[in-house]
Design brief:
Elements (H helix, E strand, L loop, with lengths): L1 H19 L5 H20 L4 H8 L7 H25 L1
């Protein structure tokens, strides 16, 4: 489960720096460092709660219909935010 989270982190780094067109984008490195720190802290907090982590990453029955619609839009707009900010800096 955590492998998917870290793979998404690597995808985020790739999107950010490809959009910027350079590796000297210090704001991107700062963002990635803070994001990585967040992932490490979260990994330690969920280390003994793997069932809770699985539940949070893939909600099952009982989830409100608007949450199922909201999540794909959220991911799309986060990607757009990263791309536009990196294009602006690049």
């Amino acid at each position: 489960m955590l492998a998917k989270v870290y793979a998404f982190f690597l995808l985020t780094i790739a999107i950010l720096f490809i959009s910027a067109g350079r590796l000297s984008y210090w704001q991107g490195w700062l963002f990635c460092g803070i994001y990585f720190l967040f992932l490490v802290i979260t990994s330690f907090n969920f280390a003994d709660k793997k069932d809770l982590l699985a539940e949070r990453l893939k909600p099952g029955p009982g989830v409100k219909w608007w949450d199922k619609i909201f999540f794909p839009f959220y991911l799309f707009f986060i990607a757009v935010l990263l791309i536009v900010s990196a294009l602006d800096a690049g």
